[in-house]
């Protein structure tokens, strides 16, 4: 049966990292093996900066500097890996950079989301070209496939919706039964008209799930720079612990609330076919992993803490001293959807409807401008939202000590409080229950 591996940007950030993943693939001898790969390191961030320069008047010099630096980074990796070998994909990579340059010029007046997808996808196309060439250079028979031709979507750029039937036909028709390593890109897809689309930031996990679902895979393995899933970000919580088992439902809840280990859309396609997802460390591959499957009895063993920073609190009030009733709430949430935003916390009272939102200026300002035409708006920036799944008694009070909670929400399994970021510690500690 098929296995799907997914490698993120950290696992292929440079030549040494690419070398390091080779034995992980070589050791897995069952075929077909589908390997889904992200852009190298922070390439997507650099491509976003390049995009901003391409769309700005008078930024040609800045654009050219960004472009050449990005090209040099990839050439450095190829030189370390291949030297003067004929196996080097330098010519193909340069052709991809030429395509990228041309598309920036072609789309600079296009809507931002469309321009974004036509150009940012080149991070994955270039990285997989290098990795495929390296695996073949090492004697691992590998076929490179363009995900834009396999993952079929609509034209909702930056958050494309999957055409499952067309995607399944394309993937099964091209990949089923292969006796080689199948290397393709995460994060990207394509429309029926041949335009590139993206599945949302960090969407490579979702890509792996798409391939697994369509090929009835035995397992998805996500290789990361940590040993598995933790009950909090180990960089922010000094006593975070690894979670060995988690259900699809609980992992989806954590992703929905902002945990950054698994993309929120990943678990649905796997749960439907009972395909387990394993998170392993590419640095210590023999360490005990974390497994996500249908088993729910381990979900509440440890409280899970999630921080969402750079939050904005938007209070919406009617101008006519009327109730904030269902029709008005429906109107506000409709505008939220039109702006492409997600509410991380919602609070309401008789004459107030409030939303905690990610600080995404282009989308947020669109929403604020729309609401201000019909409502009074109060706004506060620079906030941090703390979410705790399965909190123990007294936990939220201990975590809140010394800081004012601007908003709070709680149900049977989840508690949330919103704080000013300036009041929050750099390092948090998960308390024992009182």
Supply the helix-strand structural class: alpha/beta
Query: Radius of gyration from the CA trace?
Result: 23 Å
Biggest sheet character: 8 strands, mixed
Extended strand count: 18
Task: Identify low-pLDDT runs.
Answer: none
Tell me the helix content.
25-40%
Question: How does the SSE layout of this entry go?
Answer:
Elements: E1 3-7, H1 15-27, E2 33-37, H2 43-54, H3 60-82, H4 90-107, H5 112-120, H6 122-137, E3 142-144, H7 164-175, E4 181-185, E5 188-190, E6 196-198, H8 204-214, E7 219-224, E8 229-230, E9 242-243, E10 245-247, H9 248-256, H10 267-272, E11 277-281, E12 290-293, E13 304-318, H11 326-338, E14 343-349, E15 352-358, H12 361-372, E16 375-389, H13 395-400, E17 407-410, E18 414-420
Parallel strand pairs: 1-2, 1-7, 2-4, 3-4, 7-11, 10-12
Antiparallel strand pairs: 5-6, 8-9, 11-12, 13-15, 13-16, 14-15, 16-18, 17-18
Helix pairs in contact: 2-3, 2-5, 3-4, 3-6, 4-5, 4-6, 7-8
Structure description:
The chain is of the alpha/beta class and 434 residues long. The protein contains 13 helices and 18 strands. It has helices at residues 15-27, 43-54, 60-82, 90-107, 112-120, 122-137, 164-175, 204-214, 248-256, 267-272, 326-338, 361-372, 395-400; strands at residues 3-7, 33-37, 142-144, 181-185, 188-190, 196-198, 219-224, 229-230, 242-243, 245-247, 277-281, 290-293, 304-318, 343-349, 352-358, 375-389, 407-410, 414-420. An 8-stranded mixed beta sheet has the order 3-4-2-1-7-11-12-10, sandwiched between helices. It has a 6-stranded antiparallel beta sheet with strand order 14-15-13-16-18-17. A two-stranded antiparallel sheet has the order 5-6. Strand 11 and strand 12 form a beta hairpin. The longest helix is centred in the N-terminal third of the chain and has 23 residues, at 60-82. It is globular, with a radius of gyration of 23 Å.
């Amino acid at each position: 049966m098929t296995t799907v591996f997914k490698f993120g940007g950290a696992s292929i950030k440079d030549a040494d990292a690419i070398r390091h993943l080779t034995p992980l693939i070589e050791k897995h001898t069952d075929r077909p093996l589908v390997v889904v790969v992200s852009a190298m390191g922070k390439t997507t961030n650099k491509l976003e900066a390049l995009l901003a320069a391409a769309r700005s008047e008078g930024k040609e010099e800045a654009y050219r500097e960004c472009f050449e630096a990005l090209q040099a980074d990839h050439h450095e990796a190829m030189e370390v890996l291949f030297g003067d070998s004929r196996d080097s994909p330098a010519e193909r990579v340069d052709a991809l950079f030429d395509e990228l340059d041309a598309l920036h010029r072609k789309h600079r007046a296009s809507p931002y989301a469309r321009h974004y997808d036509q150009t940012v996808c080149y991070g994955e196309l270039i990285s997989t070209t290098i990795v495929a060439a390296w695996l073949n250079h090492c004697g691992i028979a590998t076929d490179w496939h363009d995900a834009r031709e396999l993952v079929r979507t609509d034209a909702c750029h930056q958050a494309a919706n999957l055409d499952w039937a067309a995607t399944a036909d394309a993937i099964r028709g091209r990949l089923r039964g292969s006796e080689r390593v199948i290397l393709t890109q995460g994060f990207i897809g394509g429309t029926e008209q041949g335009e590139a689309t993206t599945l949302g930031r960090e969407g490579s996990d979702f890509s792996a799930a798409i391939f697994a679902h369509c090929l009835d895979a035995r397992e998805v393995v996500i290789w990361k720079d940590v040993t598995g899933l933790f009950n909090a970000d180990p960089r922010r919580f000094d006593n975070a612990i690894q979670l060995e088992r988690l259900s699809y439902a609980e992992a989806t809840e954590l992703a929905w609330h902002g945990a950054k280990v698994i993309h929120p859309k990943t678990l649905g396609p796997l749960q439907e076919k009972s395909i387990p997802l394993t998170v392993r460390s590419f640095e210590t591959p023999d360490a005990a992993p974390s497994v996500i499957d249908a088993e729910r009895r381990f979900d509440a063993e440890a409280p899970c803490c999630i921080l969402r920073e750079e939050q904005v609190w938007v209070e919406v009030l009617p101008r006519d001293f009327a109730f904030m009733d269902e029709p008005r709430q429906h109107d506000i949430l409709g505008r939220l959807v039109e702006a492409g935003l997600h509410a991380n916390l919602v609070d309401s009272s008789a004459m107030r409807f409030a939303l905690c939102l990610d600080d995404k200026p282009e989308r947020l300002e669109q929403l604020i401008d729309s609401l201000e035409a019909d409502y009074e708006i109060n706004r506060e920036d620079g906030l941090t939202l703390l979410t705790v799944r399965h909190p123990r008694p007294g936990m939220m009070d201990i975590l809140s000590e010394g800081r004012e909670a601007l908003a709070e929400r709680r149900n049977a399994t989840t508690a949330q409080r919103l704080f000013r970021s300036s009041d929050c510690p750099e390092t948090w500690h998960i308390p024992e229950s009182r």
